[in-house]
Amino acid sequence: MRGTSTAEKVSTIMLGEKQSIHNALHEAIRKQNEIVIVTYSLLEDTEEKIKFVLAKILEKYQKEEIFTAIFSSIKELIANSMKANAKKILLEEGNIDNPDDYMEVVEKLRTILNEDALLEYGIKAKSKRLSTRIHFHTKNNRLIIRVINNIPLTPKDLERIQERITKSAQYDSIAEFYLENPDPAAEGMGLGLSMVVVLLKSVNIDYRNFTMNTDNNKTYATFSIPLA
């Protein structure tokens, strides 16, 4: 019988750890405990955990048909959170000359929010405690999902976001919304939020079940999804 290679041992350990995590998540879902996933950069492993938790919760309540829309919405909100955190990093490092110059900010964000730079960005974000937290909690036949980041919104930004959400609810497709409300950089938070509203409408979830709030320390994006 041949010996086990180092690579095979490592693979076995990784599979064992993954199974252990899945078992713990299964138990948390069964008990309706709140599940929190903390990320500093949306890498493949984080996506898989989010998919697993969401899929198992929706499967439990026989709501699998809304998985794609809700997962896509979560990804959009994580992307928005990462942009806010990344902007703070770029400002602190002196890489943005004029933070009010929208196009400059977008161009600089593209340099660090790409596949090659995501890991490096994540390490920087972690060192500065700029996390994104995704909370899952089922209660009273509702799934509450919160995406939280460490950058508070200004009253002006929050007002602009609320207007964007309300306006987006008038449309049935993101293409239609974009044609009538173009984002010149196609990278702003507004377009992502509009996409979330349209995605929720596509699975018959009232856009008012999605809210954005802020305090002195954080920004909260919250879904309240009926499961009954």
What shape does the CA trace take? globular
Going across the major beta sheet, what is the strand order?
Answer: 1-2-3-5-4
Order of helices and strands: HEHHHHEEHHHEE
Based on CA atoms alone, the radius of gyration comes out at 19 Å
> How would a textbook summarize the main sheet?
5 strands, antiparallel
Fraction in helix: 40-55%
* Class computed from helices, strands and strand pairing: alpha+beta
Strand content: 5-15%
Number of helical regions: 8
Query: pLDDT under 50 segments (min length 5)?
Result: 1-16
Task: Explain this structure.
- The chain is of the alpha+beta class.
- It is 54% helix and 15% strand.
- The chain contains eight helices and five strands; from the N terminus they run αβααααββαααββ.
- A five-stranded antiparallel sheet has the order 1-2-3-5-4.
- Strand 4 (210-214) and strand 5 (219-226) form a beta hairpin.
- The longest helix is centred in the middle third of the chain and has 26 residues, at 67-92.
- The protein is globular and about 50 Å long.
Descriptors:
228 residues, 5 strands, globular, disordered N terminus
